[in-house]
Structure formats: C-alpha cells, structure tokens
Amino acid sequence: MEEYNDTHRALVQAFLARSSMTGEELLGVVTAIHGVENPEEPTETTLEVCKLLISRINTALAPFDFEIRSTRDQITRTEIFAFVNINPDTIIQGATHHSADEIAFFRRLLDAMFETNNQYKAEVMAVSSNEALNLNKNPRVQATQATQADGGEDGEQTAQTGEGQGPGLTMKQAQEALEMFVDEEWLRKSRGGWYTLAPRGLLELSYYLQQTYNDEADPEESEDPDTPPIKRIKDCFACREMITVGQRCDKLDCPIRLHDPCAASFFKVNKNGKCPGCKVPWTGKELVGEKAAAKLKRRAGGADRMRSTQSNRRQSGVSRRDSEDEEEEEEETTMVNDDED
Fold it and tell me: What is the pTM of this model?
C-alpha cells in the first residue's frame, strides 16, 4: 500500500476548506499539489490517479469515522466528491459550530422535506423559502403561544418541553442559518426559491434519512401483518443513488423512480417506453421534486400533527396512501362545515 504522505495530507486540507469538489475541481487541486511537490517533473494527473489518492486517504480516515465519497449531481450528473462523516449517530450533532436551535431548525427542515412535503401524490422533498422561514420556532413553543393567546394556563410548562434548548430562531436568524446551510453545501436553493438537500447533504445524511423516514413494518405492532414498510427515501432505478429530483412511474403505487438524465439514457436503450417495474407506459409527466409541488396537500397543525400522524400510522399499520386519503376527507369535511357556518 502506498505510504500516506504530504500529498494525501494536502488533499485532505483542500477538502476541509471547501467541503466538496467536482471531478474537474479535484483534478485541478491534485495537479496543483503535484506541481508544488515536483515543479521540475510534474506528475501526470488523471481522475483515476485522484481516486487512488482518495482510496488511501479513506483507509487512514476510517478509524475517525470520516470518508471522502462521491455521487453524481441529480440534474447534471456531474461527479461530485465530498468529505463526509460516516457515523450516523453524530452526523447532525457533529456540526458543533451550529447552536442547538440551529440544529433543531435543520431537523425541522428535513421533516418538512421528507415527511410533510413527501406525500403519496406529491413527492416534492423540498421546502419553499416562506415555509422554511416559518419553521424558525420550536413547534411546541408555537403551540404554547397559541394556547396563551386563547387564555390557556399551561403555556410556560409546555414551552420547556420543546425541541432544542430555547424558543427557536428569529426570522432574521433563520434566514442567516439557511444561508449558512447553503454555503456549507448542506442545502441547495433553486431559482424558484425552494430548498433541497445538496449533493454533500445527500452523501452525508443518506443513512440518517433512511433510518428516520423509512418505516420498517413490524408484524407484532401492526394490525395487518401484510402491511408493507413505508419507504419515503427512494433510489433511482438506473443509477441506484438517492433521488429527490426526477420522475416517477405513472402508476403511483409503483416504486420505480428515475433521475431525468437516467430516464433519458434508460429509454434510449429500452425503446418500449414502459416502466421497468410494472410495465405501464412511462410518460415522464409524474415528477419528483419541486415541480411536483402543485400537487401538495397542505396539512393543518404543523410539525406536531405531522409527527403525531406518523407515530399513529406506525402503530396502527395504516398505509401512507390510506393516511393521506383520510386527511383529504377530513379537510373536505372541514371545508363543507365552514361553508355551512
């Protein structure tokens, strides 16, 4: 095995300085490092050479739960390399330069993306700017404030049980936190003002997301032992990487998803134009990501109701589709009652 040397150390420092790099940027950095080490006899640098360096670095980093991993941008398919924490128990907590309220805010953003805005008929997995800013406060604190406004007496006690160590963030602090998350490449902001996980966030949080938002069916807890697990975090059928932007099968019960570039490549070879899973025609009109936002069914009650609904669904074995259909019926009933009043 190649000896761990100054080239490896310099490359680690480069990653620590910028979190992630495209393949082209990685080539430029490694070429510059080689140029400093051997100015008179520059070493030929290729992406394969870079990957060999990364392999040796990962061996050295393994005891410390860090690794340099790669993925492809979901839209451009550009290869991206990132320095990530691979210990799922310390990924979010490890962001020690963020306050407890900022970390709690980030968790609420993830809940909004992968629970609230990830529905049976609308897999958006993104959060709008306004929606993100309105997650600035601890949900229980918001509920407490509403109770106090209605003349409730238990407000102070409830506020102490909230998420994080305080009431949350001001709107200004939330905006600054969002900008930090984008600068640190946890999040990406689209031209339309929607926040999604950036490639670095997808790489580092993939295990956490699967453990948090994919429910394993437990026959002992479910009334129906045949209830399938709820899988909100899905992979592209073609590249096998996580998908938050792309296309889904026209048959909504089908689990097949494809990134847009992957769909183009897949159907260029498979000219029958049918879903590789259920074989229905693939139109490309059922979307995943921000463009599916028009189909979102808004839920009243905020994050507290969201978590309560998820917990109740796990205990009862109710499917994601049935749960959302029930909520739609409740909303329609509420609208009828309001009209009658």
Answer: 0.76
**pLDDT digit string (tens) for 165-185?**
578 999 999 999 999 999 999
Beta bridge partners of 314: none
DSSP letters of 86-97?
Answer: --TTTTTTT-TT
In whole angstroms, give the CA distance from residue 249 to residue 267: 13
Q: Where does residue 1 rank: exposed (0-12), middle (13-18), buried (19+ CB within 10 A)?
A: exposed
Torsion of CA 202, 205, 206, 208, to 10 degrees: -160
The DSSP secondary-structure symbol of 252 reads T
Query: How many CB atoms are closer than 10 A to CB 160?
Result: 9
The whole-angstrom separation of Cα 81 and Cα 61 is 15
Ramachandran sector of residue 19 (left: φ over 0; alpha: ψ -120 to 50; beta: rest): left
Residue 287 tokens, joined: 């979307």
Q: What is the pLDDT of residues 285-298, one digit of tens each?
A: 999 999 999 888 76
What number does CATH give the domain 95-197+297-341? 1.10.10.10
CA distances in angstroms from 152 to 127, 158, 160, 216, 293, listed in the order given: 32, 11, 15, 39, 36
Rounded CA gap, 43 and 31, in Å?
8
> Strand, coil or helix: what is 223?
coil
CATH of domain 234-294: 3.30.40.10
Q: Which two tokens stand for residue 277?
A: 């899973």
CA dihedral 131, 134, 138, 142 (to 10 degrees): -120
Query: CATH code for 6-84?
Result: 3.90.1150.220
Confidence of residue 223 (pLDDT cuts 50, 70, 90): low
Q: What CA–CA distance (Å, rounded) separates 256 from 284?
A: 12
- Locate tokens 């997650």: which residue? 135
Specify whether the CB–CB gap between 247 and 74 falls below 8 A. no
- In 3D space, the residue among 125, 147, 91 whose CA is nearest the CA of residue 304 turns out to be 147
The residues spanned by each domain of the chain are 6-84, 95-197+297-341, 234-294
- d(CA 169, CA 179) in angstroms, rounded, equals 14
- CA atoms of 85 and 99, how far apart (whole Å): 19
